[in-house]
Amino acid sequence: MSKPAMSLPRLCIVATGGTIAGAGVRPQTTMAYAAGALDVDELCARVPGLDEVAGIQAEQFAAIDSKNATPAFWQSLAARVQALLDAGGCDGVVVTHGTDTLEETAYYLHLVLKTDKPVVLVGAMRPATALSPDGPLNLLDAVTVAAHPQAAGRGVLVVLNHQVLGARDAAKTNANRPDAFASPNAGAMGWVQDGRVAWMGWPGHGHTRATPFTASTPLAPVEVLAGYAGGSAALIRAVGATGAKGLVWAGTGNGSASADAQEALDELVRDGVVVVRATRTGSGCVAASGGMPGAGTLSPWKARVLLMLALGAGMGGVQDVFDTY
Fold this sequence. Notes:
With 325 residues, the chain is α/β, with parallel strands linked by helices. 26% of the residues lie in helices and 20% in strands. It contains 8 helices and 13 strands. The chain has an 8-stranded mixed sheet, sandwiched between helices. It has a 3-stranded parallel sheet with strand order 11-12-13, with helices on both faces.
């Protein structure tokens, strides 16, 4: 028996496209499909029992493949989510999103939204038209988490494959499988299954109300380059010509660089480009070295998000920023 509608939390679902709304030509097709083909009303209609968990207000914000997401998209999405949270009548927001860049959007929202209300990002690894699609259950789980009273105050969350992950640490770690997401450094924050949510952790860094960033904070241009055997230092030197204010170096091991690469990185720093060291390995902690800040446990892609905000806000003390957020 479902709860009376008056007792249900009121959630807003904001759809942005992605595989969760993807459509292929055959049910057997799981890799070749059009992302964002289904609208939010059809997505919700494919999830039995959704209205038993929360009162739903759904809107179509975008219909993109998330590989095409841009910083301008992050800003406009954040502004819309913030407006929904501030307007009243909305106890939390669920954002449907493509998985390719979901982790970057999630971390950006985690840093700029000013709210204690739950915000959950959800996606899928199989299109909606595939045999055994994972999107409908992921969406039901995401709504279940957003409706849970203990979801408040945890910042932005990511829900896929029954896991609840924190936005700072969530990462796509597989190209194909439904269990593609994990938090390699922090582990899962909780899990959700059959309507039950269990919590196992709490964010360890500043987020949402505890940051100086908002959706209107300018995003400085920042690039990412990776270290590898025999890599050309010319690519590093070319970064300055792009107008970038910062560079995240996804180095080998502990964010290291070859002698040639290090010389080029030092030249960038002397020219006023802020270089942050991260690791290409997928996990571990990178400390400051050689006068360059370390990204800590942030992936190169998330380190870029934080550096864009920090430089856009005109903040100094980059290492303190990375230690705090």
